[in-house]
Amino acid sequence: MSSKNRDKTEISRRDFLGLASLWAAVLPAIAFLGGMFRMVKPNVRYEESTRFKIGTVENFPVGITKKLEDKKVFIFSTDEGLHAISSICTHLGCIVNITEWGFQCPCHGSRYNQNGKVIAGPAPRNLSWHEISQDIDGSLVIDAAKDVPPGTIFKLKA
Amino acid sequence: MLNRFYLWVLFLSSLVLIAYTVFVTYQEITPEWKKYQVEYKELLIKEAKDENIRKKVKAMDIKLQQIYLGVLNKVDRCTSCHMGVENPLMVNEKVPFKQHRGDYLKNHPVEIFGCTVCHYGQGRAPNRKEAHGIGRDTYWDYPIMNLEYIQTSCALCHDLTFLKDRGGEKVVAGERLFRQKGCMGCHKLEGVGGVLGKSLDGIGSQPIAYFPMRYVKGEKTVAQWIREHEEEPRRVVPDSQMRVDVTPEEADFLTTYIMSLRSEEIPRKLRRLTGAKMPEEIKDEGESLYKMYCIACHGNGKASVFDEAFKRTIPAIKNPAFLKVADDKFIRENMSEGRAGTQMTAWKAAAAGLTEQQIEKIIKYITKDRPKERPVPFGFALFKVNINHGEEIFKSRCVACHGENGEGGVGLNLRNPVVQKADPEFLTITVRDGREGTAMISFGSKDGGLTSQDIADVVGYVRTLSKKKYKSH
C-alpha cells in the first residue's frame, strides 16, 4: 500500500530519466520549430524600400514643385509646408501629369484637382497623399506605404 | 538494463542539443549590428537637442538596415553598422558611427549609390568580417578597398580631366607616369601596346584570387601586389621580365592609376564620362609616343644596355652612329615587324596597334639627331665573297660578343631575320665603322685590323647563319 502511494506522489528514478529525456528532446524541437516560423518573415526583402529620403528642408523653398520620376510622387512646397501626392493614376496605374488645374492622366483622361480629388474620367479613387516626416539626421522622409488624409501638411520649422 | 542505457544516451544527447539551441538562439538574437545600433541610439539620445528629437530617437527601430539599389542591381547593408554616414551630428564620432568624410555624399546619395560601388566589400553580409571580405576564408573576390586607393573608384564614372582637382590627384599623376615610363611598351591598354606583359584592361576589377600573394610582404591586397610588383618585379613574380624604375611615391601613383583600370560599367544614368580620358596635352607627338611605347626598354636611346632579365643587349636607337647607317626604311621595318627572337614587339596596327602615322612620328623623333653626312659607301656588291675565310674571321673576332653561332650575348643576335634580311651594305658599313657608344668597335680602322675584303667575307658568312642549325639551351 505504502509503495503504491509513493508511486503516485513521487516519480521513480526510472520515470524521471524517461521524462527528463523526453523533455530534453522536446525543448530543442520547439526552439527549432520557432526558428523555422521566424524565417517566414524576413528581416529585409530584396526590393525597393517604401521609405525614401528626399533631401533636407533647404531643398524645398516655398513655391517649388518636384516630380520624382523614380519614386512616382509629386512634392509641393507651399507657404504652409510640404505635402506629397502620389503620381500613380488610381485607374490603371499610369503616371499623371501636372496641369494648371490639377492632374491629368495621359492614358484614359482621368482628371484630378489640385488636391488629387477625381473630377473627371474613369479613375475610381482620389490620388493618395503620402506621409512626410523628418529623420533624426534632419533629412525629410516619405513613406509611400503610409497614406495620410488629403490636406495633411508637413509643417516646416525654420 | 539496455533500455536504461538508451535512455541515458537520449538524455545526454538532448542536453547537448539544448545547449546548442541556446547558443544558436543567443547568436540569432544578438547579431553584431545590433550592438552597434544600440550604441548609436544611446549616442543620439545623448546628443539630441530637444525633447522632440529624443522622442523620435527612442521610437527608432533596431533592425537590419538595407539600401536597395535598383539601378545598380545591388543591395548594401553597410548602414546596419555604419549608421551615422549621413548624419552631420556624427562628424566627430568614431567609426562605424562617423559621418562620411568630405561632401561626397551630397552628390552621391547613399540611397542611389550605396557603398560598395566605391568601397567594394560584400554589401549583403550582415557581419563585419564577411562584409569587409578580408581574409581567405570569406571567399569574396572584392575585399573592402584600402582608403589609400579609394580615389580609383572615382575614375569609374568621372574623367581624369574632371578629377584632376576634385580628389583624383593620385590617379591623374599615375596616368601621367604610366605614359612617361613607357608601360605600354609591354602592356596593352584598350588594344594598343606591347605583348611582353599582360594586358592591363580591367585589372583593377580582377578578383583577388588572380594574384598569387606568396611573395607579397605587406597586406595581401591586389593594390599591394601591384605596388610591390612595380618596386621589385622579380620578387613578386620570379620569372618577370619587367623593366621598371620607380620611387616609392611614383609606385603609389602608378598603383592608384592601374587600380582605376576597371571593367565594371556603371549605368549611364549614374556616371559622368565625356570620353576625354587624358587630362593634358595630347600625346600624338613623337616624343610622348616614344615615352609611351619605347622608353621602358630603350631608355634615352643614347647608349646600349645589357638587360639581365632579357639576357640581351638593348640597342641604342638614338645613337648618331646607329642613325648614320640605319635609314628610315630599316627602322620602319624593325618597328613595324619587330625583331623575331628578341623582346622587340611588332608595332604595326595589326599587332601592337600603332598606326602608320604614329610610327612615322616616332621615327621622326628618333632620327632627329641623325648626322648630316652619310657613311662612305662600302660597295659590297663589288667584292667576291669567300665564306670560309669569313667563318675563320668570325670565329676569332666575333664570337666573344655575338656567340659561337651568332645567337647573341653582349652583342646582338645575328641569326634573327632582321639582320639576315638586312641590306649587306648596311652590315658591312656597321662592321667597318663600328657602333659608337656600344661595345661594337670599328673593325675597319687601324685598331680593328680587318681589310675591306675581310669585312665582306665575314658579312657573307653571317648571312649564311640562318641556314645553319642551332639549338638554343
Throw out a few tags for this protein.
heterodimer, A: 158 residues, alpha+beta, Rieske Iron-sulfur Protein, 2 domains, seven-stranded antiparallel sheet, 2 helices, elongated, disordered N terminus, B: 473 residues, mainly alpha, Cytochrome Bc1 Complex, Chain D, domain 2, two-stranded antiparallel sheet, 21 helices
Q: How many whole angstroms does the radius of gyration of chain B measure?
A: 33 Å
> Low-confidence stretches of chain B at least 5 residues in length (pLDDT < 50)?
none
Please provide the count of β strands of chain B.
4
Assembly state of the chains shown: heterodimer
Radius of gyration of chain A, rounded? 29 Å
Mean pLDDT of chain A: 84
What is the CATH C-level name of the largest domain in chain A?
Mainly Beta
Short summary of the structure?
The complex is a heterodimer of chains A (158) and B (473). Chain A is of the alpha+beta class and 158 residues long.
Overview of this protein structure:
- The complex is a heterodimer of chains A (158) and B (473).
- Chain A has 158 residues and is α+β, with helices and mostly antiparallel strands.
- Chain A has helices at 2-9, 13-38, and strands at 51-53, 65-68, 73-77, 81-86, 97-99, 102-104, 111-112, 118-120, 129-134, 140-148, 154-155.
- Chain A has 2 domains: 2-38; 51-155, Rieske [2Fe-2S] iron-sulphur domain (Rieske Iron-sulfur Protein).
- Helix content of chain A is 22%, strand content 29%.
- In chain A, strands 1, 2, 3, 4, 9, 10 and 11 form a 7-stranded antiparallel beta sheet that branches. Chain A has a 4-stranded antiparallel beta sheet with strand order 5-6-7-8, with no helix packed on it.
- Chain A is elongated.
- The termini of chain A are far apart.
- The relative contact order of chain A is 0.14.
- Chain B has 5 domains: 1-26; 31-144, no CATH class; 150-259, Cytochrome Bc1 Complex, Chain D, domain 2 (Orthogonal Bundle), CATH 1.10.760; 286-369, Cytochrome c-like domain (Cytochrome Bc1 Complex, Chain D, domain 2), CATH 1.10.760.10; 380-467, Orthogonal Bundle (Cytochrome Bc1 Complex, Chain D, domain 2).
- In chain B, 41% of the residues lie in helices and 3% in strands.
- A two-stranded antiparallel ribbon of chain B has the order 1-2. Chain B has a two-stranded antiparallel ribbon with strand order 3-4.
- The A-B interface holds A 14, 17-18, 20-21, 24-25, 27-28, 31-32, 35, 38, 43-44, 46-49, 52-53, 134, 136-139 and B 4, 7-8, 10-11, 14-15, 17-18, 20-21, 24-25, 28, 44, 53, 56-57, 60, 63-68, 70, 75, 77, 84, 86-89, 109, 111.
